[in-house]
User: What shape does this take?
Amino acid sequence: MPDTRASSPLHLNQRAADIVDEMVRQQARLRVAVDTIEGGGHVLDAGVTSRGGLEAGVGLARLCLAGLGAIDWVPGDIPHPSCPRIQVRTDHPVAACMASQYAGWKISVGGFFAMGSGPMRAAYGGEGLFEDIGHREVAEVAVGVLEASKLPGREVFDYIAEKTGVEPSAITLAVAPTRSLAGSIQVVARSVETALHKLHTMGFDLSRVEAGLGSAPLPPPAKNDLAALGRTNDAVLYGARVTLWVRGDDESLAQLGPRLPSSASPDYGAPFAEIFERYGHDFYKVDPALFSPAEITFSNLDTGRTLRFGQLEARVLEQSFFGEKRS
Assistant: This one.
């Protein structure tokens, strides 16, 4: 596929920069803090030293999607009505979820490590994923979201500037720990992204996907980032519902569908914290097939047929969220 860095019409980083400006104007209401790094850009702290909250989490999720998706709150059901669902919807699923939201960039500089999300990834374009989906872009500003428990320093901005070609002063990094309220929300808002990534690993042509809508339950607060990592993963693996509106034939959907939900993995059935501990806290030892929503529905715009695969698993969610084991 040819390099499309200069041809993407969606301007992902500029869209996200507009959301940053909006959040900065509303920082008191959102309970976030904005700091300027000497010789670098800006840090938007949504939960490391600032309080953050529900609206900050929605803002982070919108940043991750580069403004090409909407975040809604919907009533909870599974595992309990007290857990509201975070819903995401987009008419630009590949650009919003794969070129921007997917946490595909490992940021490791000195003693700082985080997985990078957001449209700065498209300005970098170094992941092999972009060879398939396009949406690389030359950008004058770069916006990223980092899931981390400490704030990045100048060296992180210099590293990202080198990779993206954007001046350090034009880079904004929004940061929140997994266990923070804002951090948990932006992770749980990845239901559609998780489905698309799984489809991509299965060789599915993502250009067939016209739109996506998904939701997952927001877990109760966790005592630390490791516990929050387990609960937020469980929210998607056992509690996410996703609908994708697609085009093309039904046969290919029927063939890959049974392998698509998280239940297709041999690791399925236990809370993610247990699975993670079993593999020595090494993500790369966990079966990749596990990382998928619990339930996925294809609605074919060409044939009018609907195909659904997988189902929600309240038992594991109750165990993960509330420590309850039920048969």
